[in-house]
Amino acid sequence: MGEAKGSVWKDFIAGGFGGICAVVSGHPLDTIKVRLQTMPAPAPGQAPMFKGTWDCAVKTVRLEGFRGLYKGMAAPIVGVSPIFALSFFGFGVGKEVITSIKSDKNSKLSLLELFGAGGFSGILTTVIMAPGERIKCLLQIQKGTAEKKYNGPVDCAKKLYREGGIRSIYRGTVLTLCRDIPASGMYFASYEGIKNALTPAGQDPTKLSIGSVLFAGGMAGIFNWSVAIFPDVLKSRFQTAPPGKYNGIKDVFVDVLKTDGIRGMYKGFVPVMLRAFPANACCFLGYEAALKALNYVVPPL
């Protein structure tokens, strides 16, 4: 995976294609996740807006049709290609940097070293991820036409800029970093680790079957979100809250604990995990397929 010298540009292109595959396959469950995470706390004696994942899905389709599950997808589709491209590129660069400072340049990177390279990729992606997530979440929580404030990602970005400038668009950047640095490290380290475990001794991991790649990619998604779900809940709350409600991360944390308890930190866990395996299996399969195509057109040195 991008081991050959000078191949990070291939990681960039192949990662972008893999990201598009991930969004198209996983966005409906992402919409459900965000709606569960951001629904208001019910008044005493009242039932919650959604009882769970299935209830949220049924109500969304009933009120808004299947298109409701794809609300806000334009923002990640536009942003996801460069985000995943930067992510895989950052991982490739991280591996090269770590290899360059190792005494044995030909030795395999350890899981901890792969985690560090993956964490570096999470820093690069935040530049695009933070505003993309802000816009996506605001569009996803719009239910029906009565509450419609934004008419799409461009309209949302314009209104956010008008309300608070670039700071408003980038609201939640610190929480995005808190989520993506450790989650990206886990993402790439688990993928590479599972791929190596599935590869028979003496064989090349790039020759794995489609089924093995799908399994490794899907499990990487599971490990990624096992780490990311906690800060992701805080990020979604913070990014969709009215201006002035929260003064920082501590305020969001206290509010979630006060209204929902410790379980509130894991809201959306079911749709996240249902989405994590297929979306990331598709992502890594798309990445590996694109990388093979690129290596066919431009053979590695």
Description:
This protein is an all-alpha fold and 301 residues long. It contains nine helices and no strands. Helix 4 (111-140) packs across helix 6. The protein is globular, with a radius of gyration of 20 Å. Residues 1-6 have low confidence and may be disordered.
**Could you describe the largest sheet, including whether it forms a barrel?**
none
Integer average pLDDT: 88
Number of strands: 0
Helix content: over 70%
| Separation, N- and C-terminal Cα atoms | 14 Å
Q: Main traits of this protein?
A:
mainly alpha; single chain; 9 helices; 301 residues; 72% helix; disordered N terminus
Summarize the model shown.
By secondary structure, this protein is mostly helical. 72% of the residues lie in helices and 0% in strands.
